[in-house]
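Handoff note, outgoing to incoming analyst
You'll be picking up this chain. Sequence as last confirmed:
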Amino acid sequence: MNYSSETNIYEHGIAIEGTEEPPSLKLIATTRLPIYSGFDLTIVDLQGNSLTERAVHLTNVAKAHSVADYYEESDLRYCVLATIYHLNRLANLYVESTKLFEHTYPKGTGIRGNTWKPSIFYEVDAFLGASRRVYESIRKVLWKHYQSGKSGRWSSIRKVLTTPGNVPTPFVIKLRESWQAVGVKLTAYRDCVAHYEPLTNGLTSCWLNRYNGLWGATVKLPSNPDAQSRKFFDFESGPDAFDYCHAVACHLVELSECLEAQPRIRNYLDSPPEE
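Most recent structure output, in case you need it:
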């Protein structure tokens, strides 16, 4: 996508240039903040600050080091940035849909419609896989710093939650809260895509509606991915894919920052590893 340097992108892929803002819509991406290599937008957090920048600076090691000393930390950053990348791509695809309708059906010529947009579903699938891997990357970082030297490893993030070993209690509590609030549903979505059926009703439609006179796109995810069958999916009460993915990305960046703020991990990032 080609954006001006004064573009804000809101929920439903509504792109606004200049100072005009649609009321009551959440800002998700912008070109007004520094854009990092590999992205053409800056994803923002719930306060309007750069989520992309926060992700880029995760597990940042500002000293000479061997790459192998930080495999686990670097893998976490990789997965978080992959999550942000797919969200950036999703923003572009939503905007493409709204621009198409703005051109084809200018104001006053339509109030609702749809378009075939399988690429949105492809990016959602990719986002779910990348974001779910963030939890498993957190598991590996925790083992490295709090269980190193013990035989075996946690086989999944669920094992960390039930048998956390030496992991600091405050972080275990936060991780459990994160899992219940975000991880369970995210896993159900990912598992449905990977093992059962795509999160569609058999079509790959993107629906367009007017929001404050502007075209906005919606792709509903089912509210019950654990049904594992499109025959039983409830799309009516499910979230919009773009909004859901943005909320998950914001949460996972915050969780990853909390992880690296744990004293033992922070000290490892700030100090040379022991020989």
